[in-house]
Amino acid sequence: MCGIVGYVGRKEAYPVLISGLKHLEYRGYDSAGVGIIGNDGSLRVYKVRGNVSRLKETADKRAHDGNAGIAHTRWATHGAPNETNAHPHLSQDGHIALVHNGIIENYIELKRELAGLGYGFKSETDSEVLVQFISYNRQKYRCTLAEAVRISLHGVSGSFAIAVIDDREPGCVVTARRSCPLAVGIGTDGSCFIASDIAPILPHTKDVVYPDDDDVLRLSLPEKGGVEMMNIDGERREPTVTRVEMSADQVEKDGYDHYMEKEIHQQPQVMRECMAGRVLLGEDRIYLEAFEQNRERFLNASRIVIVACGTSWHAGLVARYAFERYANTPCEVEYASEYRYRRPVILPTDVVVVISQSGETADSIAAIRPAKEAGAFVYGVCNVDNSTIVRMADAYTLTKAGMEIGVASTKAFTAQVLVLMMLVAEMGRAKGVMGGEEYRALINDMVQLPQHIDYILSDESAIRRFAATLLPCRSMLYLGRGNQYPIALEGALKIKEISYIHAEGYPTGEMKHGPIALIEPEVPSVVIATKCGEYEKTISNIQEIMAREGRITAIATKGDTVLEKMVDNVIYVPDIHPMLMPILTVVPLQLLAYHVAVGKGCNVDQPRNLAKSVTVE
Ligand code: F6R
């Protein structure tokens, strides 16, 4: 949801900023811009409608020397994606430029006040109001840029991460955040790198500061003051520098055509990483630190309430089946965007599980506050360390999937499901619902996950061929029963997101209550028909579809000889404990969506209208 970068250092800022933006395009790519204070002290801003490559084509031709600057890649919230609404936005006097990720909620009120004071606005954005407000405060209090930013924070509501420059203070960039992600890298030579996540920072340094809400940082080279940080009340704070243990090439494509493809193929390794130190085969034991340290809270939970969005919500749905069946614990799964406004009844004995790849999804973050106020225990399942959800939760588990760049979530999902199954197993075992034998069998099957996923990936060419037959389709159905119903939803979401084919996910048994009306040869169905859940009933449902001339692809258990005689295509997955089967069945559906999108020539990693991290409502 918009990416911001900033740089101040010894190099030319322009190439650093452009390559930084490239890393952040997954956050939005409908317009982009860069602002630099040139060596002659002038502030130069270049903006385009379109992505970073277009910005580069335009801005490369112009002079862009200078060692301090800011840049932005946008996912439009206020105002259409055009050059005027693109960032950086300038103050009326032309001295200050600002890039912003997030939403200023009281911008209409502020805009009215500033207009009354003679300020004019060129764009429709809330961000331009913020830069004018900062400029107004700088003039009113005759203070520095950093001080003006700090004062302005008192007058704005909403969420933001900003980077600001002022041509009257060259060699310095000011940055601040509230409820939006922001990282500041500190290079060994004192250069500073600002970004919405660490990907643009890692090629330069691994020493990173994660500012808290309402911290304001003034960044310059050490001889000009270095890194100075204060809170909203102007009190100086010492920045805490964290060493990030991730290499820059962990975020590159590794020879794959797309990040999504790479991320699908990384899943065997992701499973290994996620289990390392947690699934202890030799000891026949699972060790999940968050559970071990909070056993009573988990085991005495009156219910588990899972709150999440999108693909993470699907992981929650998979977990619901397991919490109820294997840990005998009531479980509800909520869309975070609904939960936050629904005034739900929250019990102090609830365990609220917030699942989020990014850890920065605004709706999921907002769900934490009421849960905490009600005294519930908040447990985060996140992929990004130090993210807002990780920091707000009472306990958390990192999914350890590595950075996910493809907008459509894949490896983060399978890692989320795996972590949740570990938790269920721990609870089920401790509550005596899961016997020792089943617990050990589950552990044995868990460690087989990487090789099972490898097996599915090795059959990719068959999936590619099948994908080619789907290119003319306008609509599809995905069906599954029990814990495969969420996988049907996830398969449908994946194909919608990246290939723009309309698809619906349904519980297979629900077919005859309506969706069956859609069946015709042009509307193919993907039916998850593994041996572990109501197999015979699924076979009957398949027959109902066939009787209406529906085309069917079945996801079946390896060794199944029935389905290949019935349906048009069969994709096989190895047999495994039913709790883990969703981790396997989702993989062919990810590949299917990927190959359909590639076949249709769609932009797989940057699907239209989407952004990776939805940090606004
Ligand atoms: C779908 C997808 C989204 C996210 C959703 C929540 O492929 O990626 O549906 O799952 O926006 O994001 P996180 O998990 O970061 O909270």
Automatic annotation (TrEMBL):
Keywords carried by this UniProt record? Aminotransferase, Cytoplasm, Glutamine amidotransferase, Repeat, Transferase
Q: Which reaction does it catalyse?
A: D-fructose 6-phosphate + L-glutamine = D-glucosamine 6-phosphate + L-glutamate
Please state where this protein is localized: Cytoplasm
Q: Which Pfam families match?
A: GATase_6, SIS
Residues in a coiled coil are none
GO term, biological process aspect, one: amino sugar biosynthetic process
Q: What is this protein called?
A: Glutamine--fructose-6-phosphate aminotransferase [isomerizing]
Organism name: Candidatus Aphodosoma intestinipullorum
Q: Which gene encodes it?
A: glmS
